[in-house]
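step=encode ok
step=design start
structure_in=
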């Protein structure tokens, strides 16, 4: 876990791989810019107002640099984070409590810096979609959480959080990393992850993970809106039937956690989200 001093509202340096990243509270941006290595200072906006528009209401934002020692800067405002997330479906508001959001958010942003480094090193494709960059950054967060805690509890929470966020608002689809990570989660081994460097763990995972084209992503998005959108249509369990079992695999564990096993199984059966052989055995 992060040391208490790292959670203070002041700038600090954080390790990411073999490099250092500067973590900067937004209100201290001018001071942060002054301690950035001189040759990179012009890479960052000179005026805080420019970055303020980019950061908006978010709690963090990564700005990578390709350098052997300096990884870049992270704007970090953990006071903006919530400690729970809720969503409405099945005529019920469900809530998921969230632990250690400050650490997880910082690790995710450090992940963006590390993914950029692996791209520059030729170990990952130079062209990644925004969603692919997000799930790879979440991979770093998952790996880092295991390094710090020795277990997968926070990793599981992150996938549940990503699912709940897209249930609550389809605008969060751009960060729906559970699509890639949930089907792989059962194969994650905390002890093996602790023994591995990030790149050694990530690269086989990246090549083993199914990647989706834009049409396939639009199908998932449309199905999520039909199931969870505020203006839900009449229930049509055969709508995009070929996508439903795959979606059930991604969101099933989250549904069971927040709804309870029995209610989740019933709702998933009604919505044709279970594999046929699983539903038939019930």
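sequence_out=
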């Amino acid at each position: 876990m992060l040391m208490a001093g790292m959670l203070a509202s002041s700038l600090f340096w954080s390790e990411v791989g073999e490099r250092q990243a500067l973590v900067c509270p937004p209100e201290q941006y001018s001071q942060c810019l002054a301690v950035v290595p001189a040759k990179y200072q012009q890479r960052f906006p000179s005026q805080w107002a420019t970055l303020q528009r980019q950061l908006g209401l978010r709690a963090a934002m990564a700005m990578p640099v390709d350098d052997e020692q300096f990884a870049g800067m992270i704007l970090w405002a953990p006071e903006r984070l919530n400690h729970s997330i809720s969503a409405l479906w099945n005529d019920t508001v469900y809530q998921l409590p969230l632990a250690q959001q400050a650490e997880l958010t910082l690790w995710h942003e450090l992940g963006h810096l590390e993914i950029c480094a692996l791209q520059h090193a030729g170990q990952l494709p130079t062209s990644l979609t925004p969603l692919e960059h997000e799930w790879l950054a979440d991979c770093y967060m998952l790996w880092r959480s295991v390094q710090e805690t020795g277990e997968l509890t926070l990793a599981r929470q992150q996938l549940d959080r990503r699912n709940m966020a897209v249930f609550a608002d389809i605008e969060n689809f751009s960060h729906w990393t559970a699509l890639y990570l949930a089907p792989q989660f059962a194969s994650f081994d905390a002890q093996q992850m602790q023994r591995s460097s990030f790149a050694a763990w990530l690269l086989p995972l990246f090549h083993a993970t199914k990647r989706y084209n834009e049409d396939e992503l639009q199908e998932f998005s449309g199905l999520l809106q039909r199931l969870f959108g505020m203006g839900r249509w009449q229930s049509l369990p055969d709508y995009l039937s070929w996508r439903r079992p795959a979606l059930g695999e991604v969101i099933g564990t989250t549904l069971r956690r927040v709804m309870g096993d029995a209610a989740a199984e019933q709702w998933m059966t009604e919505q044709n989200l279970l594999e046929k052989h699983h539903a038939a055995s019930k």
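step=design ok
step=annotate ok -> The chain has a mean pLDDT of 91.
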